[in-house]
Amino acid sequence: MSITIKDVQHVANLARLELSDGEQQQFMEQLNAILKYAEKLNELNTDDVQPTSHVLPIVNVMREDVKKESLPLEKVLLNAPDEEDGQIRVPAVLE
Questions:
Q1: 47 part of a folded domain
Q2: Tell me, what CATH number does 23's domain have?
Q3: Beta strands in 5-85 (DSSP E)
Q4: 6-45, pLDDT tens digit by residue?
Q5: What's the domain count of the chain?
Q6: How far apart are CA 30 and CA 87, in angstroms?
Q7: H or E, element range at 87
Q8: Is 16 contained in some domain?
Q9: Which of 32, 45, 52, 85 is most deeply packed, by most CB within 10 A?
């Protein structure tokens, strides 16, 4: 399978791109190089390779949740720029 100038023009039209003749030629060559590389990968023997979604095993690196005491409200409000009724007051986001 190879990409032709007509294919490049069609994709450029779909993407609403105006390409010069030189750009069309350049993209055709680049896309054909990609396809040639993909065809080379088809030569590999993958009979004993298990299908995976990731090349490395994925493990959860998150720690377990541990229940512990919260900070006292007074200590939390010490760093608040403004406080009202035991809550941190922030500027309105919506009008």
A1: no
A2: 1.10.20.60
A3: 83-84
A4: 999 999 999 999 999 999 999 999 999 999 999 988 888 8
A5: 1
A6: 59
A7: strand 87-88
A8: yes
A9: 32
